[in-house]
Structures are given as C-alpha cells and as structure tokens.
C-alpha cells in the first residue's frame, strides 16, 4: 500500500516537472501557429500530448491547428476533447460549433429521453472535477454533522433537519457526478476523421450501405466486432463503421 | 434506308435553316476544309474526299466540285451537326465523296467552293497520287525501306500519328510499325517513346501481318497508343526503339550456307523511329460555355437515383453516368448547383474504359449523395454538362432528366434549427477566419485520462471524515456497552488486570518468596476466571472451575492445566521446601498459557 502511494506521489511529481518542460514546446507551437505554419504547430502540440499530458488549452490549440490545416475530422475531435476538460470555455464551445458546421453530413438529433436531455444540459457546462468537489463538500458536511451528533454527542436545534437536507444534497451531487462521469468517460463517443467513411448495416463492407459519413460527424460507440464498431448516430440510427475511420474522443 | 436517313437529316437541317435564317443573315463566316483519307492509292483502290463546311449560316448550297475526269465520283451522303449556344444556331456540314481512279498520276484537287450571296468561298487544295500497281505503298514507306545508298533495308521502325493538328484533349492515335524482312529470333524488345505533354494509354498490338514494299516482303508488327495532348503548342513524341536479334545475311559463296543460319547465333540490332511532332491547338474561345470544365470528345449523360422515397436526412445516391468517346479519365464532374432542400456531397467516382476502332472511350460514373433536409416532394433538377466536340468543332451541351424524390418524415423527427452558417461563403482551411484564436497558456495540466474521483487525494479527503465518524461511533458504542453491562466490563478488563498482577507475581518468582509467589499466582488465576465468568472469586473451587469451563466448551486440556496450576499452588503452600526454581518458572509459564487459552473461550 505504502509502495502504491509512493508511486502515485512520484508520478505526480514527474508530471509537475514535465509540465514545466512542456510549456516551452507549447510556446513554440503557438509561435508556429502565429506564423501560419500549422503543420509544425500540430507537430509541437502533439508532442506534448504524446508525453502523456493533457489540458483544455492544448486540445483547443490542436483543434485550431487541425482546422487551419484543413483536417476537419481531427479539429472536431480535439475540440470535443478540449470541451471535456473545459466545458465552460466559450472559445472551445464557439470553435466546436463553428467547425462542426463544415461537416458534410449533419444529423438532426432525435431526443428520446427528456430526463437525460435535462441532465445533460445541467451538467454540460461543468467539469467533472467541479461536480466531484461539490459532492465532497456536501458529503463531508454531512459527515461532520453525523460526527457532531453521533460521535461527539453535540446537538443543536434542528440538527436532524440539517442532516437530512445535507444527505439529499449529497445524493443529488453524487447523481450529477456519476452522470457526468458516464457521459464523459463511460459513454464512448468518436469522431469520423477519414475523408470517406461508409456506414454499413453490418460489420462488413459486403452489407448494405446505410450512410456515407463525413469528417467531423460524431458517433456513439456501442460495441465492437472485428475491425468494425457498431455506432449510434445522432438521429438514433445504428450502423457499422471501420475502426480506423474514427477516433475516440 | 440510307436515303431515308439522309432525307431526315436534310429535313431537320432545312427546319433549322428556316428558323435560323434571320439571325444568320447578319453573319457570313464560312470555312471549308477539304481532306483525303489517303494521299496515295493504287489503281484498284478508292479514296474518300471529305468536305467540311463550318458556318453560322445554315441555308448554304452544296459545295461545287471541279471537273475531275480521271476519277469516278460518287456521293456518300451528307451529315450535319447543329448546335445552339447562347441562342445562336450554327452548323457543321460534312460531305463525303468516294473517288475511284481511272488512271495513274498525281492529281491536284482544288477549287472546291460554295457560292453564297454572290460571294465565293474556297476550300483548301489537296493532292492525290494514283499508282499503277493495284495497291499503293505509301511513298514515304518506300523511302523508309531504303538506306541512303538506295539499298533495301532489312528492317525499319515507323512512327506516325493520325492527326498532326489536334485540339488539346482530343485523341491522337500514335501507330508504331516495325517492318522486318529477315528472320528474327525471339521477341523484339520495345522501348516506348517519350510522350511529354500527352496523357497516354496503350490501345494494343495488332496481329502480325505482311506487306510488300519495293518488291520485298516485310513482316509488320503494329502497336497503337491513344494520346491526349494536355497542353497546346508544338509537342514532340520521342523516338521509339526496338532491340531484336536477326539472322545474318547468307553468304552465297559459302558452300555450307544452307546450314549456316540454322546454327548461327544471329546479330543483335537496334532500330529507332523518327520523332513525331504534333501541333496542338487550343480550344476555341468563341462560344465557350462559362461552366466548361475541359472535357473533350463526344458524350451523353444520364442520372439515376437509388431510391425515390426516403426519410428526411437519409441519403439518396444519384449516379451521373457520362458515356462517350474521349479521354474518359479526364471527364470532369458535373457541376451541381446548390439546392436549398438538399445537402450534397460527392461520394465516389469510377470509370470503365472501352475502345472502338482505336478510339478510346467508356463511361465515367460520379456518385453524388443528396440528403434531403425537410419532408415533401423534392426534385433534383436537370443537370447540364458541356464538352467540346472536336469533330464538329463546337461546344455541346447535354442534360440529365429531373429526378423526383418523395421525402417522408421519420418517427421522432425534429426540424433542424435555422443555422446562421452559410456553407458557400466560408471554407475550411486557412481562409476560414471565424474560429477564435489559440490560447497562449498551457493552463492546468494533468496526466491523460486521469479522473479526479479516482485520485488518492480525493478518496482520502472523502474517506478521512468517514473513518473518523466510524471510529467515533465504535468508541461510543463500546463505552455504552461497558457502562450498561458490568459482566462485559469485568470480562473486557480481566486480561488487563490479570497481566498487571502477573507482573507482580513475576517479581516474587524466586525461592525466597516462594509462598508469596504461589499465593499471588493463585489469586491472579482465580480473579481472572471470576472476572471472565462475572462471578465472585470467593468460593471458586477447582470443581466449580471445571464445571463452569466445561459448560462453556473449554477444552479438557485447558481445564486440566488450570486444575494443575491450582494444585501446584496448594502443594507449594504446604511443602514450600520441595519447590525448585525450575518449578516456579514452569508455573509462571503455565499460567500465561492458560490465560491465553481462556481468552479463546466464549463467556457471553
């Protein structure tokens, strides 16, 4: 157990020191971008990503550099990744919206579950970490109240009502946090990055062609079979697409 | 039947002539081009004279031929090609005549003319050579078959094109002919000529045939190429080269010559063709359609949809098939206008090439996907396509038929919100200027994929108060139990008390204080068992201990050890002098073991 904790601390330290070195690479990437040298800007930003570090700004800049170099699929992919880390960032939201309009295939979303839509709207602009800390605040407050009452035998008027209220807030925050975690990490979504991306009715190119996907189109990954993903499109249609034509967000 | 066709053509022509006469009266631009399909023929052969009249006028008289007594002339008919570009009607009329020579000689054919509105328009003159022999060998071939000293060549390579002045994009057929009059071994090896400025494709090899030139029989190997000039101006097709091994000439004075070539090794030769120069004309700028994409040849177009009934936002694949003669690989995509009701994008293109009479052609298929954005009856309109026809020297427009699509509402359909985005006004790439600027600060970084809720710090922050609460609750519960249950309290403190007293007994564990030691040891054990059983230590006899412990499922061995310790204590009290130090240590050890054993017995 002690070894595990030490390893985690060491990793955190390594990441902290690596981030210092990555700042220089990041600045070089920004310089290339400012000089309209977008391919080199992509190269520099990708270097940071390959070192195992991520940030909303890094993904946002990668999205911009890919967009400027004409790679719509990867631009949308990185804007989505940036949005996961910085969902409230107006620049990311704007550029994602702007770039998505260029996709040759636009889906009309069919919303089947209004509760899910409401929850998505509610948590959409919050980071998972923010919701996580909100849960912690309510949970720890709830525990402190319990400690006061049951551990230290300290009572005040209406302590039970406060405890119940805090318990409700804790459950609510836990629900939002787990929903956000599901949306951000458990629901596997991908962006089409290949210029030509046929979507078939089965996991083979010999099956019927359902749709020709285009770069920038977002799909939900449901299952895998061989070289194919079973995908759910925004209009709730299903199909199969080759794995190498998409990149997971 | 033929006459009937000609009549129809004539009627069509006449109709167009009447309709267009008023417009054409303003222009009087007539071009006459005269050509022969061969310039040298034998007496038993025929030649076709073609007169092409290109004019913006349609009601022209037939061309006048000069008197040609040395030929029998038959008309092969007339064809017309009418085109309407930007409202102006223009026509290309082609007259064909078959000439059968009556005698040998070289005859100029000139003064072919048309008189129109008192003005005479003359065509170019051509010259036809008629040879005495039945079938003519072209003169240049006779020249090629001789070396500079006039000796007959054993082999030579000829390169020729069918057109010297093609339009850019028009097919030029290059023919390579390898003539050989001696025996050759193996297959001749060809080095292809350079064709800079042309897009080229091999048409194929013709089966080997024989031709007599200068009274010598040559074996002819023929290979053809379709060349499409990609640029204007003078283009040169480089020299082709053939390497072969031929039989050496027999030495007639050698008495064994009849065997010589059978076992001879032959002679390696290389032969080159002359370079061929082609002067490529640019396409006429006159009446060039605005959306002309550079397609040259003669084509037709059709459009077909894979479905006529579809849900909103579901794709309809439309195949645009362009079929005809020309460089099919360079046939451009039809220009589809932006349609408000559809999102359109190109899916793929494919082509099939074919050859008819050395002319390259085929079908090019453009697959376009139309995605209807709203329900209703939609129409994919007629799509126009322009190409330049080098034969008629006119730009032609062909059209597809409109396609009706019935678009239905799917279940759960929600209309897309109106987007402020205008796809035609912006484009992806460097020109797109509406994305917001990049960030100059890397911001908060974290290892990729790290999620806060699984980080140790987060778990610790939330787990610590939980642990504190659990700890406090346990402590409180224990305290409450101790307060409420004396027996439980005695039992919980029994070990602690016993160990304290056992320490005291350990101090007394020597021979001098043997009585005190055993008295203390007895007291420790009695008090410990009494506390564990929550009974009074007074009157706790060995029999009582045996009974109580047996009732609580203590092992017989443990009970025997306890009884043994009690007996030892009694024995020491009455005969202390017989006790050795070894007995004292053994008794102390036994009590410690017994206490451990009693801890394992359930007393509740």
Instruction: Give the overall shape of chain A, derived from the CA principal axes.
Output: globular
Rg from Cα of chain B: 57 Å
Order of strands in the sheet with most strands of chain A: 7-6-5-2-8
CATH level-1 class of the largest domain in chain B: Mainly Beta
Describe the structure.
The complex is a heterodimer of chains A (249) and B (604). With 249 residues, chain A is of the alpha+beta class. Chain A has three domains: 2-100, Tetratricopeptide repeat domain (Serine Threonine Protein Phosphatase 5, Tetratricopeptide repeat, Alpha Horseshoe), CATH 1.25.40.10; 114-186; 189-248, Roll (SH3 type barrels). Chain A has eight helices and eight strands. Chain A has a five-stranded antiparallel β-sheet. Chain A has a two-stranded antiparallel ribbon with strand order 3-4. In chain A, helix 3 (56-68) packs antiparallel against helix 4 (72-85), helix 4 (72-85) runs antiparallel to helix 5 and helix 7 packs antiparallel against helix 8. The longest helix of chain A is centred in the first third of the chain and has 33 residues, at 2-34. The two termini of chain A are 33 Å apart. Chain B has 604 residues and is α+β, with helices and mostly antiparallel strands. Chain B is elongated, with a radius of gyration of 57 Å. In chain B, a hairpin with a 4-residue loop joins strand 25 and strand 26. Chain B folds into four domains: 2-131, Immunoglobulin-like, CATH 2.60.40.10; 139-280, Immunoglobulin-like (Sandwich); 298-408, Sandwich (Immunoglobulin-like); 484-599. At the A-B interface, helix 1, helix 2, strand 1, helix 3 and helix 5 of A face strand 22, strand 28 and helix 4 of B.
């Amino acid at each position: 157990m002690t070894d595990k904790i030490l390893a985690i601390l060491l990793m955190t330290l390594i990441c902290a020191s690596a981030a210092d070195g990555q700042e220089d690479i990041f600045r070089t990437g920004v310089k290339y971008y400012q000089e309209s040298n977008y391919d080199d800007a992509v190269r520099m930003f990708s270097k940071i990503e390959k070192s195992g570090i991520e940030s909303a700004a890094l993904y946002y800049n990668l999205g911009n550099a890919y967009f400027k170099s004409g790679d719509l699929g990867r631009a949308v992919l990185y804007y989505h990744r940036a949005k996961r880390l910085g969902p409230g960032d107006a620049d990311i939201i704007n550029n994602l919206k702007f770039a998505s309009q260029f996709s040759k295939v636009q889906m009309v979303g069919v919303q089947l579950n209004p509760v899910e839509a409401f929850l998505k709207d509610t948590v959409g602009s919050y980071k998972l970490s923010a919701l996580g800390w909100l849960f912690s605040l309510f949970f720890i407050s709830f525990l402190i109240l319990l400690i006061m009452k049951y551990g230290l035998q300290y009572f005040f008027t209406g302590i039970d009502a406060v405890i119940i209220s805090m318990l409700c807030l804790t459950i609510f925050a836990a629900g939002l946090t787990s929903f956000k975690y599901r949306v951000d990490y458990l629901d596997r979504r991908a962006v089409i990055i290949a210029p030509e991306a046929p979507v078939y009715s089965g996991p083979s190119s010999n099956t019927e062609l359902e749709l020709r996907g285009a770069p920038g189109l977002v799909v939900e990954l449901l299952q895998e079979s061989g070289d194919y993903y079973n995908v759910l499109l925004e209009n709730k249609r299903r199909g199969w697409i080759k794995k190498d034509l998409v990149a997971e967000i | 039947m033929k006459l009937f066709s000609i009549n129809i053509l004539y009627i069509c022509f006449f109709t167009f002539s009447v309709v267009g006469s008023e417009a054409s009266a303003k222009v009087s631009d007539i071009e006459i081009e005269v050509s022969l399909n061969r310039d040298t023929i034998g007496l038993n052969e025929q030649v076709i004279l073609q007169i092409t009249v290109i004019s913006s006028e349609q009601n022209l008289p037939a061309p006048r031929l000069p008197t040609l007594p040395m030929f029998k002339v038959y008309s092969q008919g007339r064809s017309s090609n009418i085109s309407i570009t930007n409202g102006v009607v223009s026509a290309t009329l082609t007259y064909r005549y078959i000439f059968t020579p009556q005698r040998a000689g070289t005859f100029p054919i000139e003064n072919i003319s048309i008189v129109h509105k008192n003005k005479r328009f003359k065509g170019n003159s051509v010259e036809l050579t008629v040879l005495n022999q039945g079938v003519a060998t072209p003169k240049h071939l006779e020249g090629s078959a001789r070396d500079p000293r006039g000796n007959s060549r054993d082999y030579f390579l000829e390169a020729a094109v069918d057109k010297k002045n093609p339009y850019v994009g028009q097919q030029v057929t290059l023919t390579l002919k390898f003539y050989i009059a001696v025996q050759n071994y193996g297959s001749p090896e060809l080095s292809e000529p350079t064709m800079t400025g042309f897009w080229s494709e091999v048409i194929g090899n013709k089966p080997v045939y024989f031709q007599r030139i200068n009274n010598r029989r040559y074996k002819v190997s023929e290979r053809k190429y379709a060349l499409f000039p990609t640029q204007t101006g003078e283009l040169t097709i480089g020299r082709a080269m053939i390497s072969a091994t031929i039989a050496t000439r027999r030495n007639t004075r050698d008495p064994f010559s009849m065997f010589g070539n059978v076992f001879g090794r032959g002679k390696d030769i290389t032969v080159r063709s002359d370079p061929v120069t082609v002067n490529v004309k640019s396409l006429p700028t006159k009446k060039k359609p605005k959306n002309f994409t550079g397609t040259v040849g003669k084509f037709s177009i059709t459009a077909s949809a894979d479905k006529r009934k579809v849900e909103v936002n579901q794709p309809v694949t439309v195949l645009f098939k362009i079929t005809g003669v020309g460089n099919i690989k360079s046939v451009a995509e039809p220009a589809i206008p932006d349609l408000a009701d559809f999102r359109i994008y190109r899916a793929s293109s494919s082509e099939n090439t074919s050859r008819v009479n050395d002319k390259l052609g085929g079908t090019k298929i453009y697959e376009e996907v139309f995605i209807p954005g709203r329900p209703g009856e939609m129409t994919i309109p007629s799509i126009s396509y322009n190409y330049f026809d080098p034969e008629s020297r006119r730009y032609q427009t062909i059209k597809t038929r409109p396609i009706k699509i019935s678009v239905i509402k799917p279940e759960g359909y929600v209309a897309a919100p109106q987007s402020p985005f205008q796809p035609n006004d912006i484009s992806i790439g460097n020109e797109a200027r509406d994305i917001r600027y990049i960030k100059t600060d890397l911001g908060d970084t974290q290892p990729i994929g790290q999620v806060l809720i699984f980080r140790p710090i987060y778990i610790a922050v939330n787990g610590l108060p939980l642990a504190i609460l659990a700890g406090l609750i346990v402590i409180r519960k224990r305290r409450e139990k101790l307060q409420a249950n004396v027996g439980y309290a005695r039992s919980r403190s029994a070990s602690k008390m016993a160990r304290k007293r056992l320490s005291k007994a350990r101090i007394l564990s020597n021979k001098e204080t043997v009585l005190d030691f055993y008295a203390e040891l007895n007291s420790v054990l009695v008090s410990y068992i009494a506390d564990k059983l929550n009974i009074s230590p007074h009157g706790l006899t060995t029999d009582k201990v045996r009974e109580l412990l047996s009732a609580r499922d203590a092992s017989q061995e443990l009970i025997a050890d306890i009884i043994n310790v009690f007996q030892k204590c009694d024995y020491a009290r009455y005969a202390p002098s017989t006790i050795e130090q070894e007995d004292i240590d053994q008794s102390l050890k036994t009590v410690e073991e017994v206490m451990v054993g009693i801890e394992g017995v359930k007393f509740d």
